[in-house]
């Protein structure tokens, strides 16, 4: 029996978990593709390629030349351009596709959230009075803080922010989740943080800062996700495996 060829666009905790599940099943011949934004990506259970494809047309060509049977978009919820290219490439190739995207966080009792449409919007909402800000958005858009240099920033990312924002009051830390509530609470207290800016990524790996903010009564500016391309979507690895069997039944 021929194996099912799967291309998965990854870079998330869920993608790694699905890669492990696919690698354990002999009916699948899967390749994991990473965008290359992280300097030292974690080891993966599947053969891995790193880099872009040259837009939707390039991805469609890659799918055709590789004789793939299925495309899975398991990229970060804020990787909007990649997801759009994936949906377009699947349509060009007439290939079944779906996305694995964890559900966004929902505010709970005790949370004090403001909502923003973008990082730039969130920075603007800080106002003119100096605040102590935990900028937990990764390194790609940390430069947006240049628009409000009066604040004190704690900036956390997996890889170094380069070039660094031009800020008179900024402290940088390198760390990779998952994080726990105790450590996040200690971090917020140590730096006197009174507001957090974060993207609504969902999942458990970075949720601890939200729970810590709730416990300490700290405000959170929550950046919402852009509208996702209209392709089937699942939220868990089990649902992803079920979707594969639905789209490409055994036998």
List keywords for this structure.
6-stranded parallel beta sheet, alpha/beta, 29% helix, 12 strands, 251 residues, 7 helices
Q: Determine the strand fraction and express it as a percent band.
A: 15-25%
Instruction: Return the string of H and E elements.
Output: EHEEHEHEEHEEEHEHEEH
Write down how many β-strands occur, each being a DSSP E stretch of 2 or more residues. Answer: 12
Largest sheet: 6 strands, parallel
Structural class: alpha/beta
Helix content: 25-40%
Ranges where pLDDT stays below 50 over 5 or more residues in a row are: none
**Radius of gyration, taken over Cα atoms and rounded to an integer in Å:** 20 Å
Mean pLDDT: 92
The span between the termini is: 8 Å
SS field, number of helical segments: 7
Q: Outline, from the CA principal axes?
A: elongated
For the biggest β-sheet, the strand order reads 3-2-1-4-5-12
Layout: helices, strands, pairs:
Blueprint: E1 4-9, H1 13-23, E2 28-34, E3 48-50, H2 55-65, E4 70-73, H3 80-93, E5 97-100, E6 113-116, H4 119-125, E7 132-136, E8 152-157, E9 170-174, H5 181-190, E10 195-199, H6 208-216, E11 219-223, E12 233-234, H7 237-247
Helix pairs in contact: 1-7, 2-3, 5-6
